[in-house]
């Protein structure tokens, strides 16, 4: 017995030495924060991996998942997208049991960043939007506000990429109001310089960004963004010398941080600035660098295209499974309602009306078959076209439901094309929030459109919109 105790006592220090204390973990996390602030992403990544080397280092599962997400974020900043996806998948799997809104929001936010890197802009906007919705459920304001600020900022930039300038400004303004920082101020300055040519407003936000960065609270990366915005400002004022100076300073920071995408963008800006002063030599040098980095990024992204596609397919598979369950539940409910209706009808029919009773049963069976027919491949196809806001939706919908347009126009011949399409969405069972999401419109806009449509079709307030339209078409 004494021998066993002696062995345990001798091994205990070795066991404890392989793990970090809570104080040591806090110290490492602080060091990671400082390294990121300084722009030393490789150093921060090394420390994250050091912590993750032994999961026993984490007293709480949530801390482990946060570190997975942070590692994924750093790798994304380094354009190491495939590795970033791997760590985010670990966080996603770990959160299946925890179901923590903060963690899920951060995971979706980082998936969005990776989609941006690979050029899946619309998919990135979907991920950022999902992350924002989840973030609103985070209880602690000190976590919720900066998280929302971060997500609004990066989604706003993607709205700019897709030329949705009002949404771009709205997101950036929201982010800056929630938690002002140099990054959002710089992006707002770019908005007013490039898209509105309001240089007074641009100058205001540039000064704001500069003042905030001087506090020492923000990472050096934000300084590079600010300098690029200053460059655009001076370029617009035709002060090309100052524009080039700011671009070159921004380029030096991006080189130090090893951020290929920022380097590519800055070389393009420098090409334009040198071109404006007829410095063909430097213009061509920057154009060559731009092309070289762009080709390198494209090559790397092509090698890992299957990584995001696998994630998207898995996500779609999970969504399809949920849909299948919902369809099944819907069919069961419909079948139960039909059975109940048949039972009540049978109960009320007397023995002398058996022929009539059989006819009613037959009619209900026909209705059941019609309901089943609607849950077929054509119905699935129409649903998919509606959800993706496809231009082919309306034509395909009329093929599947040929009487739909004629019956509605018989009620009101003056119905607009847009009102017929809205009626089709309602007929398919989509609610206001769904229609707004799939057609990229505000919920309030859809509510107003439905209200006006109800009036034009003379539908009473007490009537359910979906049932009313289905009764008109299917009767």
TrEMBL record:
GO cellular component, one term: cytoplasm
Stored InterPro entries: Bac_ResReg_Asp_Phosphatase, Sig_transdc_resp-reg_C-effctor, TPR-like_helical_dom_sf, TPR_rpt
Record's subcellular location: Cytoplasm
Pfam families noted in UniProt: TPR_8 (PF13181)
Superkingdom per UniProt: Bacteria
Assigned protein family: Belongs to the Rap family.
Protein name in UniProt: Tetratricopeptide repeat protein
Organism: Epilithonimonas xixisoli
């Amino acid at each position: 017995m004494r021998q066993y105790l002696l062995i345990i006592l001798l091994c205990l220090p070795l066991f404890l030495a392989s793990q970090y204390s809570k104080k040591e973990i806090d110290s490492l996390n602080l060091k990671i924060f400082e390294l990121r602030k300084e722009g030393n992403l490789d150093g921060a990544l090394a420390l994250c991996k050091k912590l993750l080397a032994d999961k026993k280092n984490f007293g709480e599962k949530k801390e482990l998942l946060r570190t997975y997400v942070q590692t994924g974020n750093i790798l994304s900043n380094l354009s190491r997208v495939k590795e970033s996806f791997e760590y985010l998948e670990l966080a996603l799997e770990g959160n299946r049991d925890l179901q923590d809104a903060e963690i899920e929001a951060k995971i979706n936010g980082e998936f969005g960043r990776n989609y941006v890197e690979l050029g899946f802009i619309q998919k990135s906007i979907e991920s950022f939007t999902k992350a924002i919705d989840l973030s609103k459920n985070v209880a602690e304001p000190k976590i919720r506000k900066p998280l929302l600020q971060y997500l609004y900022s990066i989604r706003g930039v993607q709205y700019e990429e897709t030329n949705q300038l009002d949404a771009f400004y709205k997101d950036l303004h929201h982010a800056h109001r929630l938690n002002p920082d140099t990054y959002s101020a710089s992006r707002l300055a770019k908005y007013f310089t490039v898209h509105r040519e309001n240089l007074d407003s641009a100058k205001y936000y540039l000064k704001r960004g500069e003042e905030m960065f001087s506090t020492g609270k923000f990472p050096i990366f934000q300084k590079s963004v600010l300098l690029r915005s200053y460059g655009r400002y001076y370029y617009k004022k035709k002060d090309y010398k100052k524009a080039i100076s700011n671009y070159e300073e921004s380029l030096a920071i991006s080189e130090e941080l090893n951020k290929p995408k920022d380097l590519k963008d800055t070389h393009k800006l420098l090409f334009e600035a040198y071109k404006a002063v007829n410095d063909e030599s430097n213009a061509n040098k920057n154009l060559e660098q731009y092309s070289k980095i762009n080709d390198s990024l494209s090559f790397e992204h092509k090698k890992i295209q299957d990584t995001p596609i696998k994630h998207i397919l898995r996500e779609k598979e999970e969504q399809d499974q949920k849909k299948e369950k919902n369809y099944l539940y819907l069919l069961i409910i419909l079948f139960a309602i039909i059975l109940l209706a048949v039972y009540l009808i049978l109960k009320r029919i007397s023995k002398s009306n058996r022929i009539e009773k059989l006819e009613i049963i037959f009619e209900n069976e026909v209705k059941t078959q019609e309901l089943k027919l609607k849950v077929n491949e054509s119905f699935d196809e129409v649903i998919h076209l509606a959800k993706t806001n496809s231009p082919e939706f309306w034509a395909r919908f009329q093929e599947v439901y040929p009487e739909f347009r004629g019956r509605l126009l018989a009620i009101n011949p003056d119905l607009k094309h847009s009102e017929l399409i809205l009626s089709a969405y309602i007929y398919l069972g989509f609610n206001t929030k769904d229609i707004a999401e799939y057609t990229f419109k505000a919920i309030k806009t859809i509510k107003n459109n439905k209200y006006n449509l109800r009036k034009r079709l003379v539908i009473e307030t007490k009537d359910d919109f979906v049932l009313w339209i289905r009764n008109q078409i299917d009767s």
